[in-house]
Amino acid sequence: MKCIYCNKEKEERLFNTEHVLPRMLGTFRENLTIKGHVCKNCNSVIFSSLESRFKEDSEEGIFWQMYNLNDSYQVRIRGEFTKMFFIAGLGDDFFNDIFPFFEYKDGEHCIKFVDQIKIKNYCKDGYLILLIDNSKKIRGSSKFRKLIQNLEGTRSEDVSIFVGMQNNKDRLKLDEAISLLRELGIDYKEKQGKFTGSEGIEGKEVKISVNQNIGTYVARFLAKISFNYFSYCAIQSDMGHILFNDNFIPIKDYILGKKDLPTKEVLISIQQEPIIYDEKTVKRRAVGHTVTFYRFNGEILSQISFLGKKIYTIKLGKMPEELNKDNFGCGHFFNPFNYQFSGMSKNPNKWNNGVQEGFGLFKLY
Fold it and tell me: Global pTM?
C-alpha cells in the first residue's frame, strides 16, 4: 500500500481512515472518508497539528468554536495570526471580554452568552475559555487531569469569571466557578465584580471585528482539505493512480511541511464573491462549507470556503493530460447544521432539476 501524501509504501496496519473534511468541521450523515490511502504518520501526526492551528488561529476556526456543535468544555484561541475583538453593547469594556457563542435556532444564527472562565496567556498571545457547566462534567476524567497539567502556573490575575446572576447577592454560580478553579490548581483571588441583569444582555447586538494574517499552518490546512476532496473524487472515479502524478508532488510536500513555498504560490487569491449560484441570486452567503476543483489555464485550482466566509483559491498543480476533458471539475456544499451535503454544478442544464451530483473528477462543477 502506498500513501497518497508521502508516496511511501507501507504495511496495511500503518494506514488508517482520513476524513475528507475533519470532524472538527462537523459530522455528516454520510461521512466522506479516504480509507487505506493515507498513512498514520501523515494523518495523525502531521494533519492533527494543522487542524489544531486552523481551529485556534483562523477566523473560520474561531467562529466554528463559537458554535460549539460538539459540546466541548473549552475554546482555545492562539492569537498569533488572528485577533478577534468583541463589543457586547453593554457600555463597559469589562463586558467586552466575554466570549460570545452562536446558536442555530429556527433557521437563524443568534448570539448567546455562556457561563465561562477566561484564562489569558494561552500560547503567549491567546486565551483559553472554559465553559463552566461542561468543565464540571469532566471532573475525575483524563481530560480533567490533563487540563490541570496545562494550567499549571496560571496566575490569579490572568483569570476572569463571567456568570449569569439575578443580582449581586446571588453568588451560587460564581462560587461554583471559583471552586472549579481551585480544583484545577488555580488559587483564584476574587477581584472587584461588575453586574448587569438579564435585561441588560437580552437583545443586545454584539459587534465582532477580526484582524487576520494567513499563516503557513492555515494555508497548509486549506491545501490539505482541497487535496483531500480532489483525492476522494479521483478514487470514486477509479483513477486513484493520478494522485501519484509528479505534478502533485509540490503541493503534497508543502502540505506535509517538507517544502517551503511562498504562500501566494499556493493560496493564489482570497475573495468574497460567492461560489454557489443561489448565493449570487439572493446576494447572501450560505453558512456552511464549500469545496470545489476545476481547470484554469492548464492548472487544477480548488475553491474552498468555511461557514460562508472568505473564499480561498488553492493551486493544486498542473493538469495531467489524461484529466484534460471538458467536463472536468466537481463541487459540494456541506451543511454542518443539518448534517447533509449536496452537489453543485456550473452546467445550467443541471440547475433546479432535482439531480444530486455525486463525487468524481468529471462532474463539471
Answer: 0.91
